[in-house]
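Appendix B, Record 12. Input sequence as logged:
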Amino acid sequence: MVKESKYAGPSSIATLLNLADTGSPGPTPSFVGPHILLAFMNVADSSYIGRKPLAMKSGLGEGAARSVLLRLRKKGFVDVIRSGCFLTRSGKRLASSIGSTMSGPLSIPNSSLTMGEYQAALTLRGMAVNLHSGIEQRDSAIRIGALGATTYMFESGRFKVPGGSSDCEKDFPSPAWSALKKGLAPKNRDVVILCGAGSEVGARLGAIAAAVTLL
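Logged structural output:
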């Protein structure tokens, strides 16, 4: 796997993404920044979660999950006991900070809006200013194993595609629009990414990989 460069963007999210960079010579890890961010979110969503369930929900092998947890633990964000792992007080503050920028990923019923039997969506608050064509987000999702991703900006109560539809709900009718509004509550100038894959974890991971290109 290609080693990633340092991430910029909101410090709370960059802190986690950059944990994938070992900063020293040696074998390249089998995981990248989006895996760590998804793993952290999965811990945050649970009171306790075991290593094996965490690995499955984060698209990681058990060895990679151990490495990710070790890095999170060294930073003081996660603690591990026999019954599972959980966020520390510092980890909870970090999760709250991330939540002010990113909402989701949220599972969305299969729709025609993007490719893939399993689909997940997330919102990036106020990030429409960083959005161009949406191609970079799609390509990033595909590189990490998703089948595709569609990126929208939410403006004046409407989902829009850069350089395309100015009212996606009208031009591409789908029940998914209501699910996106209800589940993510997008606000003006937010970005909404809908990603599809062959598995639920693949869709969630792809959505995160697409999102970090805008941070």
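The longest strand covers residues 148-155.
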